[in-house]
Structure formats: structure tokens, C-alpha cells
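Practice problem 4.
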């Protein structure tokens, strides 16, 4: 079960299965606002993986909408019908309604240059959401190298017979994202799996593990299947 920390009270809140409306409160159209939408997108994906239907609600300007589309963020609805549980995603000190728990997301600086959208997505996801994000040259270069390596690995593992996601890997991934949506910890599970010895986990099981995690992360890790290196 997904558990989050309510930014207002500091208390942990369990999210049992059920319809959830994720209300996002962006201010402006900068990367801080984009980071709010990204956190809400991954939160909605986590709810879906837990069997809870979700709807993201936000009023988004055209520039921010275009940036969110590029990052593969699901489109938000400007309004939502009543019903279900409500969660709010907002920046520090931003006012929001009192009808549900709040996830607070620290601001982000602007990215250097014009990075590939999935590179920027990974750079932002790699930073704990309560800490400011700085998608500078170093952070983006590291994310680009990681994505390139993982996509090559996934393309190679796809050539082997499929195997189920190992129970231990699945449990560690879910424990990470169900614990207050700890995305750096979930990414850490993938890094450890990539670095394990050849015989520890079969290639087909590694492929399925990365594909499973990507349902949450949205990094297009299977994009290069069929590519000849």
C-alpha cells in the first residue's frame, strides 16, 4: 500500500485502494511547475500499479503543457467531478485546499541547454522531491549516460528468453515507491541490478524488471529494442 507524508502535519498517511484525484497547484510555467506535474504523474502511475484508478487535475498554460507533453507526463484535466479521495501536490508555502493530504515538492532550477526530455525526466526523478533540483550540466550528463547504458542493456536482455521479475526485486521496487514515493530508492534498485554479476539474475528477468519499473518511471527504457550496436 502506498504511504505518503502529509506536508502539513508531517504524519504518514496510508492510501488504500480507491479512486484518487491528484490536484496539482503549479505557479507559472517554469521548471518548478514542471516538477510538480512530474511528481503528480509518477504518483498517479504508482496508484494505478496498486490498483487505484486516478485522475490528475490541474490548470496548465500552453507552454507548460507542451513541456509536460515532451516529458511524457499524462495530461491533466482542468476540472474533476466530485468523488473519491483527494491528494494535493504543491510547492513550498503555496496555499491549497484543506480537503486532503499534501505532497510538497521543492523548486527546480532551469535546465542547461535543451536536454532530451527523458534525460531531464531522469535528472528530476533522481533528486528527492523535498530537496531543490538543479538540472545543471553535471546532473544532465549523468542522467544521459545512465539512460544510454540502461537502454543498451535492456535491448541486449530482450534477446534472451523472458523470465519473471524476481520476487525480491519486485518487493524492493514496490517498497521504495510505496514508502512516500521514494523515487531515488527505486532508481537505486535498478542501478544495483545493472551492476550485479552475470549469473545473479538471468538476462530475461532483468529485462522484465526494468520494463516493470518503467511503468512507474516513464523513461522509455525499452525504446532501443531491436537496435544493432
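Answer key:
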Amino acid at each position: 500500500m502506498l504511504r505518503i507524508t502529509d506536508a502539513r502535519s508531517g504524519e504518514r498517511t496510508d492510501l488504500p485502494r480507491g479512486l484518487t484525484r491528484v490536484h496539482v497547484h503549479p505557479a507559472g510555467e517554469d521548471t518548478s511547475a514542471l516538477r510538480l506535474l512530474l511528481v503528480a504523474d509518477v504518483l498517479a502511475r504508482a496508484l494505478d500499479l496498486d490498483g487505484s484508478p486516478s485522475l490528475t487535475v490541474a490548470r496548465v498554460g500552453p507552454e507548460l503543457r507542451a513541456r509536460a507533453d515532451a516529458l511524457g507526463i499524462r495530461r491533466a484535466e482542468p476540472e474533476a467531478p466530485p468523488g473519491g479521495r483527494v491528494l494535493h501536490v504543491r510547492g513550498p508555502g503555496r496555499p491549497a485546499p484543506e480537503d486532503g493530504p499534501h505532497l510538497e515538492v521543492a523548486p527546480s532550477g532551469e535546465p542547461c541547454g535543451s536536454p532530451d526530455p527523458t534525460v531531464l525526466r531522469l535528472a528530476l526523478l533522481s533528486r528527492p522531491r523535498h530537496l531543490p533540483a538543479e538540472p545543471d550540466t553535471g546532473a544532465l550528463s549523468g542522467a544521459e549516460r545512465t539512460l544510454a547504458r540502461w537502454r543498451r542493456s535492456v535491448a541486449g536482455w530482450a534477446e534472451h528468453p523472458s523470465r519473471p521479475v524476481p520476487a525480491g526485486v519486485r518487493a524492493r521496487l514496490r517498497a521504495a515507491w510505496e514508502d512516500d514515493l521514494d523515487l531515488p530508492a527505486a532508481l537505486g534498485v535498478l542501478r544495483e541490478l545493472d551492476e550485479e554479476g552475470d549469473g545473479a539474475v538471468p538476462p530475461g528477468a532483468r529485462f522484465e524488471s526494468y520494463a516493470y519499473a518503467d511503468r512507474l518511471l516513464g523513461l522509455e527504457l525499452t525504446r532501443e529494442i531491436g537496435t544493432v550496436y
